[in-house]
Design goal:
Layout (H helix, E strand, L loop, with lengths): L13 H14 L5 H8 L3 H13 L4 E4 L5 E4 L12 H16 L5 H15 L2 H13 L15 H12 L1 E8 L5 E14 L2 E8 L4 E6 L3 E10 L8 H11 L4 E7 L16 E4 L2 E8 L2 H9 L5 E5 L1 H20 L3
Antiparallel strand pairs: 1-2, 3-4, 3-7, 4-5, 5-6, 8-10, 8-11, 9-10
């Protein structure tokens, strides 16, 4: 059976680590002390204390000294098998794989113990199906990769948003300036490698988005609010993040009469329909990336500004022409 991957140290209560230790011991006949300590994010002395606590609870944990030694449970100390359909096993495997990619601080130990539970109670055939998914399926959950993490904050804020409970938090912006905020949390979303909270800010008296990895403290308040009916968190993020000032302000005219409409990602902004085509105004940091986005449009592209983007797009077109010529097309 494959060894569990070594997670980042957990930040939860010791009781949670104790339960994780039990699941890890049940998932494999024997594990070394250093391996268990690394998986739990504790030192060797703390691990030995956890082992003693399990033994005091009547859990038959045995130890073996030597280079091949370690900790294990008495043979036969297992729960009865739990069966899943093929679709359920696939859903579990994909869900655990996705959770590992979402930047949840402190969640890796929980993911490891969940996987250990499944390995322990599922029949061999289903265990092999999940193992095949884990080793052969890759997930891309957002351009740019994971930028920051969220753990306790996500649980607290999602509960507050679901129940309509006001929260207070300490937030540090991208310039490092801290502020105290009182918010009506409308919802949380994962976008382009980052967790965001969308909330009504009582300080700014307007809707705002907050990166969860910049929230330093959060607590629920004994006050409620009413979330707007049908509020779309992702649609709001697309609109607001597209307007954030970046390195380059882009102004482009796309298509024209009789041409197919452009296919613009909402994160870039909205293309305004005009008699002569669609006008796109966007803020971007990477002109090469923007040139590639424009090159794949199904219609004409006229760059009004900046001149540097026009040059990048022309260079992209020349490369495509050379590639086609080399292939004899």
């Amino acid at each position: 059976m494959p060894r569990a991957s070594i997670p980042t140290p957990p930040t939860g209560h010791p009781a949670g680590r104790l339960l994780s230790l039990l699941e890890l011991l049940q998932s494999q006949r024997q594990r070394s002390g250093p391996e268990l300590a690394a998986l739990l994010g504790v030192d060797a002395r703390t691990l030995r204390r956890y082992i003693a606590q399990l033994q005091a609870l009547g859990i038959p944990v045995h130890s073996q000294r030597g280079c091949d030694g370690g900790y294990g449970l008495r043979p036969g100390y297992k729960l009865p098998p739990l069966t899943f359909s093929a679709d359920e096993a696939l859903a579990l495997a994909i869900g655990l794989r996705a959770a590992r990619e979402l930047g949840l601080q402190g969640a890796l130990p929980a993911i490891a113990s969940t996987q250990a539970k499944l390995d322990r109670v599922m029949p061999e055939a289903q265990r092999q199906r999940i193992q095949a998914v884990n080793t052969s399926v890759a997930l891309d959950l957002g351009r740019g990769g994971s930028q920051g993490s969220a753990g306790h904050e996500l649980l607290t804020l999602s509960a507050a948003a679901a129940s309509g409970q006001r929260v207070a938090l300490h937030y540090r912006d991208r310039d490092g300036q801290g502020s105290e905020r009182e918010l009506h949390p409308y919802g949380i979303a994962w976008r382009s490698g980052t967790w965001y909270l969308v909330a009504w800010c009582r300080l700014r008296k307007d809707l705002r988005s907050f990166r969860l990895d910049r929230i330093e403290q959060v607590r629920a308040l004994p006050a409620s609010f009413a979330r707007p009916e049908g509020f779309d968190v992702l649609a709001y993020l697309d609109r607001t993040l597209a307007r954030l000032p970046r390195r380059h302000a882009v102004d482009v005219l796309l298509g024209g009469p009789g041409e197919p409409p452009p296919t613009i990602d909402a994160s870039l902004g909205e293309a305004e329909p005009l008699p002569e085509g669609w006008r796109l105004r966007a803020q971007v940091d990477d002109l090469d990336w923007m040139a590639r986005e424009l090159a794949r449009q199904p219609c004409r592209v006229r760059v009004l500004a900046p001149r540097a983007l026009r040059d990048r797009l022309a260079a992209q077109a020349r490369r495509l022409l050379i590639d086609c010529t080399d292939l004899g097309l």
